[in-house]
Amino acid sequence: MADESNSQVVDALLTLGREKAFAEIGQMLSGLGEGVLYSLVEEDLGTLVAGDVSLSPVFQLTNLIFKGGCALVEKGTTQAGEGILGTVTSACVSQICEDDPRDERDSGKKWSTISDKLLEVLPQLSSRSIIDVAFRILAELKACGSIPSALHSFLPMLLDTLGTIGPVEIVTKGEGFGASTAAAGDSSTTITRTGLALKSYWVESACSYRWDPKSSVAVCALLREIVLSERLIEVVAYRMLRQLKLAELNELPAMVYQLLLFARNGFKREIIGGILSFFDTAENDSSKDGGDAAQSQKRWRELGDIEGTVMLHIIYNIKQDFELGDALIAHAKEQGDVALAAAGGAPSTFSFACLLALARIHRFEDAVISFLRTTIVKSIHDAMALASTGWIRPLLPPIRLSAQQQLLSAVVARSSYGWDQVTQSLIQLCLSVMDLTGSSAAARRSAYSAQACAEARRISTQALRLAFGGHDFVRAEVVDQILSRVMFQSDSHMHFLALLGDLVADDSDVLRVFVPKFVDVFDSISVISPAALEKLLVAISPIVLDDAPFRSSLILVLRKILFAHSFDDRRTALSGLFVLTSSFASALDECQGRLGAAALAAAGAGEVRHLQRRVDVLVSALLEVLGLLRRCLTQQPEVRAASYERLGLLLDMPCVRSSSLLLSALHDIFRVEFAKYYRAPSQSQGCSPINIQLCLHPVTSKVVMPIASFLHCYGKLVVASRTPGFGTSSSSSSSGLSAAAVAAKAWRDLCLRFSKAQIEDFELDPTGDYSLDSQFGLRNFSTAHLVVGCLDACIGYALAHIIHVAPATAIVDEDSDGASSGNLADPTIVVELFTKFNRFGDILSSRCIDERKKKIIPSISDLSLLSLDSVVSVLRLVLPDKQRVDNGSHPLNLDPVTDHNWFVSRIAKAGLWSANQLLIKHLLEVALARIQRRPVAGNFTSANNNSTVLPPAPAARALLEMAYVVFSGVLVYFGDSSDQAADTEQSQRPLPVYLRAKAARGRGVVHISAEILLACMTLLTTSNSLDHLAVAIVRPAHEHFTDGLALPSNVAVECVAALLTSLRRAVTTLLRQKPMAVKDASIVLSSVQILTTRLSELAFSGIRREDQVLAYHCLHQTAKWTVELVQSEMPNDLGLMKSLVIQLTSCQAFLQPESVVIGTTAVAVGPRSDEVELEPVDQLTARMCAASRLHIRDPDNFDDEDEDVDEQELEKFTVRSIPALASLIMSWFKAELHRVDWAIGQLRRSVNMEVNQRSGTDDGGDVDLPLSIGVERRICWRMCALSHVLERLLSGSLPKAMYDLVIRAFQDLHRTWALLTRAKMASAQLPITESYIDALLLICSDLNTHAYALITNKYSNMIGAEDATEQPLSGGIKKLADGKDEKSKKVVKPKPKSKVMRDSSLVSSLVYQMELSEKYVIQLSTKFKTPLAHYLKRSTVRDFRIKKSDIPEAMAITSDDEGIHMHDSVSPVQQLQYPQLVEDDEDEEEEEDVAVSGAESDTEELVADQTGYSSAEDTADVRGKRARLE
Q1: What is the phi/psi pair of residue 1454, to 5°?
Q2: pTM above 0.85, yes or no
């Protein structure tokens, strides 16, 4: 019956619908019940639910019902109309929800008409209907985890309408809608809720339900369209972030996009932070997952593609909303270690990449690059600082030094996963890091260590190399940036040239496309320094060798610059030419070797032809460059001098000495030039063998031909031509051999004649005028300078001839011209030449003085032009390695040319030189001058060019060889004894003759050798090659004399420790020879300090545990040894004391036990731990202060506590040494405070990390931070130990000249204390510990008392007693002193006004810092409700405050007719001219401007303040009295 009645109703409705009688339809529907209406709509929509869309009509009945209900509402029958619309809407929503949710796309199409109709009738629905429909959809979401797509456009409008409904009574069951549980027996309750509350409940309930992962994006999109309150926005945001973990991988980009759109409503920082955290966690999880390499690669590929898409969404939304970009940067800064994850964790690559992508937007570029650059460098600095700060390292979370390199490498590696947008920003970031760390000034301003800057440059260089090799679109940018810095000579351009060399070494073919850019750079070659040009040419030499057009263009540019007007430009071109020459010679030598090997191996004809063509090309290029060099040798004297100098260095290279083509061409050039100045025996007739006068200008007497440089270069050329295995001696024609023999014969004659020459032979008078201010003196000086240079060249040739040539070839001793014959292979020739050189050099050095009566040439060694390679080859024989002599299988004896027999035979010939201590000292001083790059003294080659040009920097190979020679030949004899034999007599240890000889005047062999070793260490430390020096000395081998060798960490540690131990023994042995070896021990001790620093760095550089233990034991023994030296009876030598103080402060940390220094976990330490570590410095300071009291105080004022001090222990401290040692201790104190400042910064990081780790596990209440409390306790103990050291210096025992340093150190201590107090205020979880109170009592009470006494002692009267001078009274003032004691007849000369102003500013700054610290302590006390103010020492008398009660006694000034009567103890000039200043009121303005608290007051105000009068009348009286006195 129901079906028949429904069909009748349907027919009636359809009939009325065709007549468009919608009002009648409404009247008809109002008579039907809700159940009938619901069933009608259900039957009508059933066909669509079943999927049979072919039936018709569809939706007609439902549409008529909608229209009927709307007609009733329009006619005023609102209640009936709303009821009909509510029923049909509820039925439609139910039918949509019952549809299959898996086919959402087709379902949306089917229900689109109904959805539109629902939107149309929504404003006409009743409140009850809206509530029912809304919660029907919520029930669907709870049941299925999704919302049908047909309701996506309807639901947001529905909920917005729901929020506008007023109070409504709702019957609920249980605790729905926040109602309390009904009474017993009741199952429902009635509550009243507003529409806004219902809407909030709906949203919160939707966020609490589980969402279907496939429908996550749709639900998020729906929630995003709803207008929400701030609280609901936060709820929805966190629910959407949680849904990220449940969504499918391919849905993540869409989910993130919805989140970013939702972020426009608010909570931008939380949303962007949640997105970054999610992907960072996903990366960490992926890295921890196991599986084979293929699965891992696939997993990373999928995640990388998703992350690339997400980054595009992030950047797109940031471009639409810049506040989102600000939120991203703010989140990164809030995290602190962006992209570096937690302490020591894996780097958060995605966060880092997002910031790099953000840098592509111009608005955020500078901020992001600056932030990332600072973060990377600071993280490296923190990692190194943590490794070197043993007292705090076990308590802090670790920081991995390799995290940054992994971070940059990971970004480059994943750029192929759709991260291309970050690559260009990565390039810019790496370049910026290199700019910051390459500039010493910028790094100094940023307070980064040199080691951190070097490591940051290395990491950036590695990342740039990876990006350059993997992405062709960044190569042009990298090359442009490098060349632009070279062109503009930026501070870091040398580091960028090293990067260019690495890029060329990686793949030179890739850089060939940038040859036009290189050509443009060389067109502006005049703006490039010679050093930069050399490095640029060395970097691109493989391209120059293979690209003929580029090579021709480069040579053309250099040819033009060779004739430039500026000498600097020509010197630059010379540098380029010689680099090309060495590159061509090296490549030619390599090709010829490969060609010979190919011929022997019967290689293919094609390979042989290719090598032969390359040889021909290189020969042609080399001849072209030699042609340009020939032109250089015909230019001005300074150009020729520079050319000869560089040619001499070039001839030291093995590849050049082995090039027969190059040697033959140079022979042709030099033979003609040598003939112009050489006088044969038949032509000289007893005159000079060199025409010296031809080398001088006839009018100005200036040098026009640098004959000394020429002879040095020509001598090397002749020796290279006659050395077995090199040059023409092995591969040239017989004519070449004949030419070399002729040249050698001329050199033999030249050396023999110079060895017998007298100074009169050169028209010089030993007692003549050699000054530079007269024409005659200038000519004598120039002549003598050239003669000494020729003698030096002959010495160099004779040494090289005896070492390399004499045993293999023989020169006829009989001269056909009848001249005196001699054998140049005789070592006595060298001694005779050196005797002449020494005599002539002494005359020139002693007679040549300037207008201030100072020597122009300090030492004769400064006149030598010997190269470092030449000196090393001689000293290797003069100072032989005894182990190499005794051991035929020594690694250095394995060379086929310089084997053991060769070495022993040369040592036998050099025995005469070893006995000549003056010759050895000269060679050592020349080597030291070359290492220190000192220019040749008095080398003025033209009248208008007196500028000094530094010689080229020595090669690392030469430095390593020189260090090995001086150690194995000199220092090893003092450092090879064992600790048990420390007390044996020196005579029991055999010394070579050059060490047994009586010391000559000046520095000895040991002293100069120690200086050379120290200079080599210093240079190699700057290039991070100190480990190679230790290996070359301890394990000498040919392959170890280069800094390019990769050294294992265990080898470096073992060799540095062995060298340190040997030098430590050498110092002990030398100190036993006091006082004659004190200076030597001081220099060796400086080398010990460098090695100590390096070994401490190696100990915490991630090496193996056994190597770390070895390093610790060596450093521990070194620290104990240093303490014993400090406490022993040392000689009174300032240099030694300073070296000991520096050494003590560098190794004092290793006095602690092994578990404390290198322990990986925190060990139980007490307050005494730091005191024990700093005890040697404290004792040294105590003895220094006691000695200071002995020196600067009267016996009557000597402290009773100093009577027990042994005066013999104080003899080492003199009036001159005390200020210097105090300065060193203050420098160490400030460095320790910097470490404490850094530890305080790490304390904040530790607190934040520990709070984050424990906040999720603790159930309310305060979070316990045991690790952070331990860090703070350790910092307080450290500050207490440092304060005890400073307390001795604040006691007023030092000379008053040192007070400024002490006051500044105390000011720094208060600044550090204020920093710690502020860190505690920022961390509410850190309680006030007992250690903090102990430090507070010591610093702010005890030390403040000493500081106030110190201030009063020095600055109370603004007059320093030690600066005062006594002057007799005169005039009217003398009359006032008649009848008084003698003391009143002296006038103390007051300080200058500038010093008074400086002192007042210093004290004002100190008082300001002390009060600032006290203010922070009081704020901390208020915050924690703990009384701390009673621990502070509040001052009553400041530095500028006057005790008013003492004014009448000190300033008794009266006026009468007879004159002015003054108190006997005060000088009138002191009273009137330099009064005491009065401190301003202590208010808040003092914190902003305290440095000028009254220092610029005028004279009248100062006088008024000092006398205590304030009225204008009294001030005028005082002015009149001063006028009468004057």
Answers
A1: -125, 155
A2: no
